[in-house]
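hey so i finally got around to running the thing on that chain from the lab meeting. sorry it took forever, my laptop kept dying and i had to restart like 3 times. anyway pasting the input first so we r on the same page abt which one it is
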Amino acid sequence: MRKQNKRHRKIRKCIEGPNFSGQHLLHNKKIVEDVINRAQITKKDTVMEIGAGKGAFTLPLAEKAGKVLAVENDKEFVEILKQKTEPSSNVKIIAEDFLKCYLPKEPFSVVASIPYAITTPIMEKLLHHPGKSFKKATIVMEKGAAMRFTATPITNPKILKWRMWFDLKVERFISRTNFSPPPKVDSAVLCLRKKTQPSVPQKHHQRFQRLADYALQHPKLPFHEALKSVFTSKQIKHITRDAGIERFQPISSLDEYQWGTVFYAMIDHVEPVKWPKKRKTGRRGRG
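ok and heres what got predicted. didnt touch it at all, straight out
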């Protein structure tokens, strides 16, 4: 017990600086191995690790992947990573804030235990544009965030957009006691896979986002009420029949297939002047 407390104090001293963004380092090697096995990484894969810390994931990933891009913003951790990965020619350390660095142009995967404080910004960067080279991820994150991202009904338009092009699934939970320093909450392993046949093509992702933003302004509204400014009563009748939607069903309860039907009904049968427009925000619009 004393040894574990000493480890916690040492790591806390390293990370309680200006670069710290809620980073808790996973120290259970069996769980690290399990997370990497779930990622199904091969020598053909380029893997980006976000918040590499002291290399708990970096070194095992280097044995399985063709290339590992270890992103770490803490200077002390970067020095530790450089020493540990010196023998590994397939590891590149990126000493930068992940939110400011460029994503790889070639297809890549993500395997990481990410900082809790920037979970949503990380997800937004990876999933905002479904046409990018990002293809899959296995991420250790705060349990509450993982549950929100996979919950039904879907009340958040950003999360709806993510799930139109990616399958999200909580694979397992991890006790807070497996981290140094231990966080106040438990974690979860969230797996993401890009869909091979999404119900809406990637080229329409911005138009779909505008539809989702508009329709989910009031998630509890009945379907016909939420979209009455876009579709005529006759069009709504056809959509409910074709997609198996009840007229008074809450708009947030639609699944990805039903949203696809709604989107194509708009594209095919509604004049562009009636399509939802991009929502106006201030200079520092809220996420």
